[in-house]
Amino acid sequence: MGQQHVVLFHSVYGLRPAVLTAADRLRAAGHTVVTPDLYGAPAAATVEDGFALLRKIGQEAVLDRAREALREAPADAVLAGFSMGAGVAGAMLAERPDAAALLLLSGVGGEPESVRPGLPVQLHLGDPDDYDAEPEVAQWRRAMTDAGAELSVHRYPGVGHLYTDPHLPDHDATAAEQTWERAIAFLADR
Asked: Containing domain of residue 56, as a range?
């Protein structure tokens, strides 16, 4: 129990102030947090611009930047991310088998074959979520549990996709506060 090294990957928007604020919140709870810029470019103003930026940069370049950010991180760093960043965190799990945990915010991530038995995984997701439909979430949940993950899923009824970001229309202050309380408790238990 105690301090964790967390690598927190941003959403398709890029490295927005909300990601940096989230990192500061985790730091205030005693954790070391790194927030790599997977784009190397200013954050997008809209989700459409974010997807255009992702297409321009390319998924492989994004994953290479994630790998680069992880080179300096301890082998047991917590992999975390928002939306697209949750997918990046999950993808990196295959290369980081000793990760202490997987913290997924507004998106699922991780393939069952990358999960070691007992891996702590926490998911926070709007209900419903525009990007992660319930049938896919249910299938992912079963596969992760069957692979041995210690999975906890927190759904937030009636909130939008990136509900923790106070600068987006999806923001929900109550759900965001619950998310951070649960995430901090989750990290403290590792």
From this structure: 5-188
